[in-house]
Design goal:
The protein contains nine helices and five strands, in the order βαβαβαβαβααααα. With 212 residues, it is of the alpha/beta class. The chain folds into two domains: 126 residues, Response regulator (Rossmann fold, 3-Layer(aba) Sandwich); 59 residues, Orthogonal Bundle (Arc Repressor Mutant, subunit A). α6 crosses α8 and α7 crosses α8. It is elongated. 25% of the residues are buried.
């Protein structure tokens, strides 16, 4: 896990429950930050270290699911563990579909809460590693020229140099030179590796002309 200290964020408008939960989580060695509302939490600077969010469902003005939706827009990585005293299957199902890590009923048993927090922090680590890898790939891709980017998208279709040359109206020799530069800049040795980079970065192959 990251060397930064894990923080467990608690967002709940019930002050008595919130403070009791904070003491409990602190007792197993985690740093805790409490917020009485979703609005207060959104005012906090985004924490770039390992974290998870213990979030109440029913709160005035901005509910737990409302906060979840806002965090999705911001591409926040912190896994969300919903805590609620009310059984609402529709809300729970939607929260899970929208990426919530878990949905627990109050009062939650200590060992279940602790295990869920541990798993949520492990998930954060995996998400952060994935994000770092995507950022690394995007940084490499940013070194390509516009023409190299174009050729790159044709290469990952699996087409030969002469086919790509025909598609974009340049010489086969030029395509070969671009291919060599692309491989060097992206630090790969095969088309399969290029394809994997494209997949991770969300880049789709160029589309062949159906009339050709």
């Amino acid at each position: 896990m990251s060397k930064m200290t894990p923080i467990i964020f608690i967002v709940d408008d019930d002050a008595k429950f919130r403070k009791s939960l904070a003491r409990l989580v602190k007792s197993i060695g985690y740093d805790v930050e409490e917020f009485e509302s979703a609005q207060k939490f959104l005012q906090r600077t985004i924490y770039e270290g390992p974290s998870c969010l213990l979030l109440d469902v029913r709160m005035p003005k901005v509910t737990g699911p409302d906060l979840q939706a806002e965090l999705l827009k911001r591409d926040a990585l912190s896994p969300i563990i919903f805590l609620t005293a009310h059984i609402d299957m529709n809300t729970g199902i939607k929260a899970m579909k929208d990426g919530a890590f878990d949905f627990l009923l109050k009062p939650v048993e200590e060992h279940i809460l602790f295990k869920t927090i541990e798993k949520a922090l492990n998930k954060y680590t995996r998400l952060k590693e994935k994000q770092n890898e995507i950022n690394r790939i995007k940084q490499l891709l940013s070194t390509l020229t516009p023409r190299e980017n174009e050729v790159f998208r044709w290469i990952i279709t699996g087409m030969l140099n002469k086919q790509i040359a025909y598609e974009i109206n340049i010489t086969e020799r030029t395509v070969k030179a671009h291919r060599s530069q692309i491989m060097q800049k992206l630090k790969v040795l095969s088309v399969a590796e290029l394809a994997r980079l494209a997949l991770k970065a969300g880049i789709s192959p160029a589309k062949k002309n159906p009339e050709l």
